[in-house]
Amino acid sequence: MAETLRRVLNLGIAAGPGKNTAEAEPPLLLLGGPGSGKTALLFAAALEAAGEGRGPVLFLTRRPLQSLPRRTGPALEPLRLQKIRFQYPPSTRELLRFLCSAHEARGPAPSLLLLDGLEEYLVEDPGSQEAAYLAALLLDTAVHFSHRVGPGRGCGLIVALQTQEEGGDSGNALQLALLQRYFPAQCWLQPDAAGPGQCCLRASLEPGGLGPREEWWVIFQPDGEMTVTRRPTQAVDTSSHKGSSSGGQP
């Protein structure tokens, strides 16, 4: 779902007029350290998809959001918020149960499936086999929703995962390498220089072979307001964090 995230980072500007590539796009893994804005970007992606006039958005997270991330523009329209369905599976077992039962759910199929805090579910059973099973089940659920939505539309999938510090547990590195096989599109969030009271991040989007890598600066103001600026193409370093579990990421 690189296109949905790209529209968020481009402040609603799509890659082309009327373009809807949800069915063709690979699932996306959103990666970053603690406090790197993953939840804020996921929520912004939910609002973006909710405004497309398609199905609802399904947002899975272990616990309710303490506050709604702020941003500029009309994205916080009540009609958009009403289309976002929050579910709070408290454990890995409950998450698996929820995903398995999605095939029996009634009502409109989601146009976008989001999972925040994948690492909180994997920590209960950190083996690679369990990570592969959960990733495969997420993809299978998105495919099922795509079939229900109908041809040419599809259900996108974006999953946020907290990365470890460089030189961390080798098991986490293997787990990330495995997940990257299921999620060919990735967006890395890493800290950058910021002004007083600000939190500045560099968002690097690799769309899984469907286009060139792109980068933006994402700045959170002291009041929580999020602003985004596109990073010049010539400034993008294509060698960083490629093929590494941490790659110098937060």
From TrEMBL:
One GO MF term: single-stranded DNA binding
GO cellular component: Shu complex
Highest rank taxon of the organism: Eukaryota
Biological process per Gene Ontology, one example term: double-strand break repair via homologous recombination
Region of interest (Disordered), ranges: 227-250
Biased composition regions of type Polar residues, renumbered to the chain: 230-244
Record protein name field: ATPase SWSAP1
Source species: Bos indicus
Taxonomic lineage from the root: Eukaryota, Metazoa, Chordata, Craniata, Vertebrata
Gene name per UniProt: SWSAP1
